[in-house]
Amino acid sequence: MSTSSSDSRMTRLLEWIQTCPSSLGLDPASIAPASSDASFRRYFRINAAQGTLVVMDAPPPQEDCKPFVDVAQRLSTVGLNVPRILAQDLTQGFLLLSDLGPTTYYDCIQAGLDDATLQKIYREALAALVQMQSASAAGLPVYDVARLKDELGLFVEWYVTVHCKVTLSPEALKGLDQVFDLLANRNAAQPRVLVHRDFHSPNLMRCERPEHGANPGILDFQDAVSGPITYDLASLVMDARTTWEEPQQLDWAIRYWELARKHGLPVPTDFADFHQDYEWMGLQRNLRILGVFARLNHRDGKSGYLAHIPRVNQYVRQVAGRYLAFKPLLRVLDELDQVQTKVGYTF
Questions:
Q1: Partners of 94 in the beta sheet?
Q2: pLDDT digit string, tens, across residues 71-94
Q3: CA torsion 87→93→99→104, rounded to 10°?
Q4: HSE of 58 in the Cβ direction (CA atoms, 13 Å)?
Q5: Is 63 exposed, middle or buried (CB count within 10 Å of its CB: 0-12, 13-18, 19+)?
Q6: How distant, in Å, are the alpha carbons of 122, 157, 282, 313 from that of 297?
Q7: Whether the predicted model's global pTM rises above the 0.70 cut
Q8: Please, what sign has the CA dihedral across residues 220, 223, 224, 227?
Q9: Which distant-in-sequence residues (6+ apart) come within 8 Å of 170 by Cβ?
């Protein structure tokens, strides 16, 4: 792999690899990009004595490896398949990790899956989610009302104002603020568990070989918080990168709810109450994602995220159109989409 002088991080990373235990049998010449994400983190795959390993490059001060190490331990303790940390340099921001394989759930879906296989791996993901919610959330940042409300501001700042180039009227802004208060307070009142925050197809590895561990492998958990119990289910079944129709969403939501009750997690005993909690959480998350994807494009030059905005917008409309309380939001969406829709409210 080329290591031009412009990539000083790669030079330092290769120097660090030379200090890792020789028993690992690392081959620096084999290092190659594995993936990147919406942050400053990069991942590389490297040949080793027992197969391949993964190197995380998380440059300080933009990134901090300590939360990754902390949450990995929490998830490993409850038996989940997360990368094992084989070597670390927290000061420089380097981690050497076990390899959970090359194929994400998203890769599998894009390549085409028969329904039986799809249902099998998603039921395994739902079981892993319930397992994850038994992990300790003590000491993690709290997803409280203030944080939930603050994140909703991204929708107005980046999606409405920057992306759609719309200046909302004071009346529209007031209506949105009331909706945001309602969402933040309702969602913050849910029972709190460890929340991954991005428990969806790009961060779930389909593990089919013994050396990769049990399915699914779980990645990108370093931003975990203590927060609403329905958050990660909403991430999974209203996936910003994969469209799931409502009947499929409902099927997985019911399966999760049944499994959560069986394991004693604090979900409502009435599924209708749980379903509203999950939908309102999904609305909150997807409004935030519209803002985040717009910001990634307009501020960070990552235009690939624009392709997912219509899907996320549809998820927002799916819930906003079902509850009378969200009528002010629906008016704003109609203005942004330059459409007039007639909505029937069912709740």
A1: 57, 89
A2: 999 999 999 999 999 999 999 999
A3: 160
A4: 21
A5: middle
A6: 30, 13, 22, 16
A7: yes
A8: negative
A9: none
